[in-house]
Amino acid sequence: MGKKDEKSQQGEELVKVNKWDGSAVKHALDDAVKTCLLGDRPQLKEQFGLVNTRLALCALAVSVAIMAHAWDFTHPFPESRPVLLFSVLAYFALLGILTLHSSFREKGTFAVALQKDKERERLWEASSDMRKYDDKYLLTLSVRDTKNGKRREQSSNKSCAAFIDQNGIVLDNLVANEVNRLFNALAADKKNASSLSSN
């Protein structure tokens, strides 16, 4: 492969975002963190429980709406009134559950991975937060032992300018450095805890 091909390949891998769009910046950084966390660590297997729960709730809400529409079509109002009333209540109840799930369970979590070894299983989670009109990107990496429930976390709160250049290009190497720093800190705590327990 020639130099031109290498340059074109590198250019295709670059991610460019509108640096003035906070939502786009956050999602681009989330994708870069997820790629670094899971792509460089084959021992981590991505889990989709949170996403599947959200999709199931959305599917149920849509199914209720479709059922109400179909029932009203075959049984015109006012005969369909009880079914429509039930459907409206069920729809908003499901939306409420979905909101609670997103606010209190997901909490900005965009990556979940399971690490299995001979001794135990550990659940890794990556979450982020970036408030509107704020340039601070808060990244939190946590690990939880599935047996005893002990949870540890490391956080990084830096300006998004630390990971994106003036042209809006996401600097994957700088993102990887930050992710590796948090991951290694948690891994070091994990090793220290295991050595203390063995002593």
Give a structural overview.
The N and C termini lie far apart (54 Å). This protein is α+β, with helices and mostly antiparallel strands. The chain is globular, with a radius of gyration of 22 Å. Helix 2 packs across helix 5 and helix 3 runs antiparallel to helix 4. It folds into 2 domains: 109 residues, Double Stranded RNA Binding Domain, CATH 3.30.160; 54 residues. It contains 5 helices and 5 strands, in the order H-H-E-H-H-E-E-E-E-H. Strand 2 and strand 3 form a beta hairpin. The N terminus and C terminus are likely disordered. Strands 1-2-3-4-5 form a 5-stranded antiparallel β-sheet, covered by helices on one side.
Highlighted features:
single chain, 199 residues, alpha+beta, Double Stranded RNA Binding Domain, 5-stranded antiparallel beta sheet, 54% helix, Signal peptidase complex subunit 2, membrane, Spc2/SPCS2, transmembrane
Concise structural overview:
The chain has 199 residues and is an alpha+beta fold.
Largest sheet: 5 strands, antiparallel
Subunit arrangement of the protein: single chain
CATH topology of the largest domain: Double Stranded RNA Binding Domain
Let me know the number of strands: 5
Strand content: 15-25%
Membrane topology: Multi-pass membrane protein
Main location: endoplasmic reticulum
InterPro entries: Spc2/SPCS2 (IPR009582)
Subcellular location: Endoplasmic reticulum membrane
How would you summarize the topology of this molecule?
Blueprint: H1 3-13, H2 22-39, E1 44-46, H3 49-74, H4 81-106, E2 109-116, E3 121-129, E4 136-145, E5 151-159, H5 172-198
Antiparallel strand pairs: 1-2, 2-3, 3-4, 4-5
Helix pairs in contact: 2-5, 3-4
